[in-house]
Write a structure and sequence with these properties.
Layout (H helix, E strand, L loop, with lengths): L1 E5 L12 E2 L3 E4 L5 H11 L2 E4 L8 H4 L1 E2 L3 E4 L5 H11 L5 E4 L7 H4 E3 L3 E4 L5 H11 L2 E4 L8 H4 E3 L4 E3 L5 H11 L3 E3 L13 E3 L3 E5 L4 H11 L3
Parallel strand pairs: 1-15, 3-4, 6-7, 9-10, 12-13
Antiparallel strand pairs: 2-3, 5-6, 8-9, 11-12, 14-15
Amino acid sequence: MNINKLRVYGNPNIGVYVFANDKIAIIPPGLHDDEKNLIIETLNVELIETKVADTVLIGVMIAGNNNGIILPRNTRDEEYTYLKNTLKQYGLSVEILRSKNTALGNLILTNDHAAIVGSELEKAEIQRVQNTLDVEVIQRDILYLTIPGSLAVATNHGGVIHPDISDDELKVVEKIMKIPFERATVNSGIPFIKTGLVANTYGALVGELTTGPEILRIQRGLAPG
């Protein structure tokens, strides 16, 4: 698996700015050409450039897999229209949740096998998530936190997760997501993996402060065996 270091707006917390699946990466406006090229080459994706909810925090706001994309209720009409029309050619459904929670990237952990959503997501929205992502949705917190999407990154082959998760809880998460996970940190010790990692089945991008040992653990998690 190809893993490269990246910064966005000079910031190592790349996961708050970028969303990616195996087909596309959604990025905020204003990235340099070398940054865009590194995303394309590492993840083998096409780039979609936009704001979401009039913010550049794409990775915080968006959750999704290779079947669909979930957007927050404060997504602007023109953003929704642009994404719906653009992503249609990639076979991706686009849905807006009416949840009071808008940081959906932090709230939802998903791949093409399943999704784990935090307990703060309203029951009425779970069916909409299930229909859009076309996966079974399990509502549970991880490490007693309602933000499973910020605690782990999952592809269809493997994942990395907050280092403090217990063995028993890790087994539950692995059973739900149907992949093995590796405990890891990013950016020199940050345990909230999502903040510094963007990954798909082709490759991974880590924040520029991520150390060599951290990269090895991330590679073990995302490319098991």
